[in-house]
Amino acid sequence: MSTPAEVRARAAQIVVLVAERGQSLDGLLAAASGKPQERGLLRSLCYGTLRWHIRLSAILAQVVSGPATRLEPEVRALTLVGLFQLLHTDIAPHAAVSETVNATRVLDEPRAASLVNAVLRRCQREGKALGDKVDADPAIRTAHPRWFVEQLDTDWTEDAAAILDANNEHPPFWLRVNRQHTTPAEYLDRLLAAGMKASLSPHAPEGLLLEEAVDVKSLPEFAAGWVSVQDAAAQLAAHVVAPLAGHRVLDACAAPGGKTCHMLELQPGLAEMVAIDASGERLERLQQNLTRLRLQATVLKGDAETPESWWDGRPFDRILVDAPCSATGVIRRHPDIKLLRRAEDIPALAERQGSMLERLWPLLKPGGRLVYASCSVLRAENAAVVQPFLARHREARDVTASLQVAWPAAGQRFAALEPGFRLRPGEAGMDGFYYACLQKSHG
């Protein structure tokens, strides 16, 4: 990449790879080259176009005669990139139009230049009216798949609209302070002295919220392990697990290791921390995090559903099951989830989550605690997984409500009479998350 048109052409290619071929946006952007300013623009165009893809597509369908899907995939994607610039950014309209039209030549589609120009010029003139025509439909207005909107209406009722709006917000930049080196208040002073405005979290004891995202290399003592980037909702995991000195702890599905490292930071007196994950590549990232933070753990490649392949037979005092899920609680960080996730994915995910609970429960000592966590907002992956497990296991008891955790609006949430605690996206600036702490009786 070197010219504005080339950046827009590459954005269109990435949108096609995500929307039509199911590839990961983060993976594609990680492989992008170019100067920092070019990569920043590319990231903004890709994230924004995918975040609003459903709405932009509906607007495009009004403008192009015949189904918009008849356009060549890269031309269609490029047009959506152009619409995103006009409707959702402060890029000068003349630059958005001209550079997007120029990008047709970069894509070797020069005959599409006049069509792209016509669509974008009309959007300049009639953008609000075109948007108003499609925005009566909440799914299109908020650019979410219809199945997801309908499920939110069932699972969250009065909170559904707030979740949809939060998913389209720019994600906040949360830090986790390592208490082995400093306190959150002291690190806040360091940030302020460095000209970085931030505030303490009222819910995550080690959490700091930066007003603006920064390069992690600019954070004071980042390389020395004083701080990590982690959403405040995920930071609650270590406090829900609450391991004690002398405990043997299992972090199942541990990579890339944020929760593993947080527990080790809070409790350096653990007898052993065992971190497993089925992905060797992700385990490499976990080990890199351990190394930077100067922490020690037993890292094993293994599947949580087949503990016989890696477990040494010694039981654990605490188990964290950070289950693979739909990730519908972190859409604002990963807008490609809107296009990659399907309604038919959810039953298979829930079945796997239930299987993990069943297979890992025998590894827990009597009197121990297993924490089930997910970054999904769907009941099918949360309470609907934990509730039948509790019904099958009389020796298991949900103790989430009794934990010393600063849950937002806790009294109202626990009144729902379902196991665990759920956080909606955007609540107290946090991602969507679910926690259920299950204690095993001695009997």
Summarize it.
With 443 residues, this protein is an alpha/beta fold.
Structure description:
The protein is of the alpha/beta class and 443 residues long. The chain folds into three domains: 4-138, N-utilizing Substance Protein B Homolog, Chain A; 173-229, 2-Layer Sandwich (Alpha-Beta Plaits); 232-440, Vaccinia Virus protein VP39 (Rossmann fold, 3-Layer(aba) Sandwich). The protein has helices spanning 4-19, 25-30, 36-51, 53-63, 73-88, 93-106, 113-134, 138-141, 146-156, 160-166, 184-193, 232-241, 258-266, 280-293, 337-340, 345-360, 383-392, 410-414, and strands at residues 173-177, 198-200, 207-210, 227-229, 248-252, 272-277, 298-301, 316-322, 364-374, 396-398, 421-423, 433-440. Strands 5, 6, 7, 8, 9, 10, 11 and 12 form an eight-stranded mixed sheet that branches. A four-stranded antiparallel sheet has the order 2-3-1-4, with helices on one face. Helix 1 (4-19) crosses helix 5 and helix 16 (345-360) runs parallel beside helix 17. The chain is globular. The N and C termini lie far apart (65 Å).
Strand-helix topology:
Blueprint lengths: L3 H16 L5 H6 L5 H16 L1 H11 L9 H16 L4 H14 L6 H22 L3 H4 L4 H11 L3 H7 L6 E5 L6 H10 L4 E3 L6 E4 L16 E3 L2 H10 L6 E5 L5 H9 L5 E6 L2 H14 L4 E4 L14 E7 L14 H4 L4 H16 L3 E11 L8 H10 L3 E3 L11 H5 L6 E3 L9 E8 L3
Parallel strand pairs: 5-6, 5-8, 6-7, 8-9
Antiparallel strand pairs: 1-3, 1-4, 2-3, 9-12, 10-12, 11-12
Helix pairs in contact: 1-3, 1-5, 1-6, 3-5, 4-5, 4-7, 5-6, 5-7, 6-7, 9-10, 12-13, 16-17
